[in-house]
Design a protein that fits this description.
The structure is a single chain. By secondary structure, the chain is α+β, with helices and mostly antiparallel strands. The chain is 26% helix and 29% strand. The chain is elongated. The relative contact order is 0.20. The chain has two domains: 168 residues, 3-Layer(bba) Sandwich (FAD/NAD(P)-binding domain), CATH 3.50.50.60; 146 residues, D-Amino Acid Oxidase, subunit A, domain 2 (D-Amino Acid Oxidase, Chain A, domain 2, 2-Layer Sandwich), CATH 3.30.9.10. It is built from nine helices and 20 strands. A hairpin with a 5-residue loop joins β15 and β16.
Length: 377
């Protein structure tokens, strides 16, 4: 039977970052690594269906993992992009409001300061109009350290670096069962298409479950895991619409965060060639589907007009959608990232990651560092 030191399940941006960092680390006990992915290629779900924004760390609660890993991850990510020539732009973001009362904006600024984001600037209505003539807002905060990235190029680079360090990438590989005997995991998989899969089983010393939307499903397939340690999964869908006219903005534009904190509001972002898009909205759903509801155009238009009044419904075209793997329901407070070791689930040499939504991309290298620290202990 084949044997590896480490099995990483899920080749989204988190699994790729862990594979790259672990592959080049000097942990001699972890030098044979396999990265499993059920899809034909990496990053087919959460990691390729988001805004491609490098976040500064403004919104997240103080002392949370989201705040810590976003701020640390942002620095690591910009350094990584420069070193490996991954396309990115530090274009900055305006968080704007038309309310006369600036108390919510001030609270956001204080939260960012507490998180270590020290470069925010207050922008007056005059300054906003000077920088973004098509924008309608009375007050704003400007974040110069917010950027955009070619997320596919980033993931491809992570994979290339990982395989350069002898990480084995295994796409089209679905985990069916994982059992633990003494210090060894037996990982049963199904290879190829679902109609006629081929069974393949191997052994490993360490399992890292970072399967994103499927992390809970994988956790339930691992024997000895304490069932109560597996958080519930809530699928939260977000649609994006592209703007058919010329992009009027130089920076990203975000409204104040939604009061229910489920999302950051329907914001404007654009890719590295300047194509403007708006989204995402937030809708809890019962199944994974990436269909875009064109009927939402009117709803999107009304929301966007709060800061971009000249937009028309016919200016919007369906673009794509994504699913967030939330571990808090519609009426619950937002949940933090969850990275579990044996103290939570009862199984030695098993690391499980749940609820890795935004700012997961920005935090990816910092999350990988955290996983490596657990493996050293």
């Amino acid at each position: 039977m084949d044997r590896f030191s480490v099995c990483i399940i899920g080749a989204g941006v988190i699994g790729l970052a862990i594979a790259e960092r672990l592959g080049r680390s000097r942990l001699k006990a972890h030098n044979d690594i396999v990265l499993l992915e059920q899809e034909p290629a990496f990053g087919q779900h959460i990691s390729s269906r988001h805004s491609e924004v490098i976040h500064a760390g403004i919104y997240y609660p103080q002392d949370s993992l989201k705040a810590e890993y976003c701020v640390r991850g942002r620095s690591l990510l910009y350094e990584f992009c420069r070193k490996h020539r991954v396309p990115y732009k530090k274009i900055g973001k305006c968080i704007v409001t038309n309310e006369a009362d600036t108390s919510n904006l001030e609270m956001l600024h204080k939260n960012a300061d507490a998180n270590g984001v020290a470069d925010l600037e207050y922008w007056s209505e005059k300054k906003l109009k000077s920088e973004e003539p098509r924008l309608s807002a009375r007050h704003g905060i400007y974040s110069p350290s917010t950027g955009i990235i070619d997320s596919h190029a980033y993931m491809q680079t992570l994979l290339n670096l990982a395989t350069d360090h002898n990480v084995v990438f295994a796409p089209n590989t679905r985990v069916t069962e994982i059992t633990k005997t003494n210090e060894t995991f037996s990982v049963c998989t199904a290879l190829g298409n679902q109609a006629s899969p081929e069974s393949y089983t191997f052994e490993c010393n360490v399992v890292i479950n970072c399967a994103g939307l499927y992390a809970q499903s994988i956790a339930h397939k691992i024997d000895q895991v304490i069932a109560e340690s597996i958080p519930a999964l809530y699928l939260c869908k977000g649609d994006y619409f592209s703007y058919s006219k010329r992009n009027p903005f130089k920076h990203l534009v975000y409204p104040m965060p939604e009061k229910n904190t489920v999302g950051l509001g329907i914001h404007s972002t654009h890719d590295l060639v300047g194509q403007l898009r708006f989204g995402p909205d937030t809708e809890y759903v019962s199944e994974i589907t990436y269909d875009i509801e064109a009927s939402k155009k009117k709803q999107f238009t009304e929301s966007i007009r709060q800061y971009f009044p000249s937009i028309e419904t016919e200016d919007l075209q369906p673009a794509y959608s994504g699913i967030r793997p939330k571990i808090s329901g519609p009426t619950e407070p937002p949940a933090d990232f969850v990275i579990q070791d044996s103290s939570s689930h009862g199984v030695d040499n098993l690391v499980q990651l749940f609820g890795i939504e935004s700012p997961g991309l920005t935090s990816s290298l910092a999350i990988a560092e955290a996983v490596l620290r657990q493996l050293k202990h």
